[in-house]
Design the sequence.
């Protein structure tokens, strides 16, 4: 993490693994959670900005993080494997909902790719502004995975969410703005300045007024079933992670590609068909 205070009442949290496109390791997620907790407890902080170093906001959870590798499926039973995924998904949900439950407003300043888990961090923030060159999506569903926190349908509606979450497609900033994933888009060289100006605007509102108004909006969404739906999603996600074989999800070949060629080889094998077919897709 890089943490600074660019203006009175504003703290900026920057994910700082630019060489790995700010891939979220186990350590990073716990540090993010702690940074948001401290910001919420600090009476001098009135607004928070979340952004990334380098060319990406975040490309999601680090698939090569040795601290977050699931156990092998034991031929005698899948219990330990299922328990590992349950604990992992519970952690993701807890950390992401930290932002939702904070009394302070949080702005995501999406400076580049916001992919998979990175997209969820961008979406869970109270406002999401982005560079005109940013992209967002959850392509992890193509390798027998799921959304750790199923927030997208609550933002853009179930029709648009199904279009993205059932294909794994990634959209550009203009399309993300059109369907409501981004609150606003700005030129790349203006992103940080505009995020700061918006944060200062939020910080100018009396803090208790901000707290109760954010809570009021959140509770109205929760009354519609948000948190119950997210708890169910945590359980169903476990099935998505285990729904693979040699013929389902091509996980064996994908894991071999990851071992032999790293993440680029993995993504090339996973996405090459989709990339080629997209040239013919008109919808």
Sequence:
């Amino acid at each position: 993490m890089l943490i600074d205070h660019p203006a009175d009442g504003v703290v900026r949290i920057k994910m700082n693994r630019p060489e790995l496109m700010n891939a979220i390791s186990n350590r990073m997620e716990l540090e993010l959670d702690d940074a948001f907790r401290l910001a919420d407890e600090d009476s001098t902080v009135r607004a928070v900005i979340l952004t990334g170093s380098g060319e990406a906001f975040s490309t999601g959870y680090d698939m090569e993080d040795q601290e977050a590798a699931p156990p092998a499926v034991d031929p005698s039973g899948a219990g330990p494997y299922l328990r590992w995924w349950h604990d992992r998904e519970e952690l993701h949900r807890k950390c992401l909902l930290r932002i939702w439950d904070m009394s302070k407003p949080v702005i995501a300043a999406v400076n580049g790719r916001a992919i998979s888990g990175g997209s969820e961090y961008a979406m869970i923030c109270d406002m999401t502004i982005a560079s005109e060159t940013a992209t967002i999506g959850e392509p992890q569903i193509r390798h027998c995975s799921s959304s750790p926190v199923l927030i997208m349908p609550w933002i853009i509606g179930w029709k648009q969410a199904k279009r993205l979450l059932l294909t794994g497609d990634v959209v550009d900033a203009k399309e993300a703005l059109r369907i409501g994933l981004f609150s606003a888009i700005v030129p790349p060289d203006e992103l940080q300045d505009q995020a700061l100006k918006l944060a200062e605007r939020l910080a100018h509102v009396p803090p208790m007024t901000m707290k109760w108004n954010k809570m009021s909006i959140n509770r109205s969404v929760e009354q519609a079933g948000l948190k119950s739906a997210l708890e169910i999603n945590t359980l169903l996600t476990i099935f998505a992670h285990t729904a693979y074989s040699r013929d389902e999800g091509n996980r064996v070949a994908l894991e071999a590609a990851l071992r032999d060629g790293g993440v680029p080889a993995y993504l090339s094998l996973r996405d090459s068909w989709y990339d080629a077919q997209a040239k013919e897709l008109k919808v």
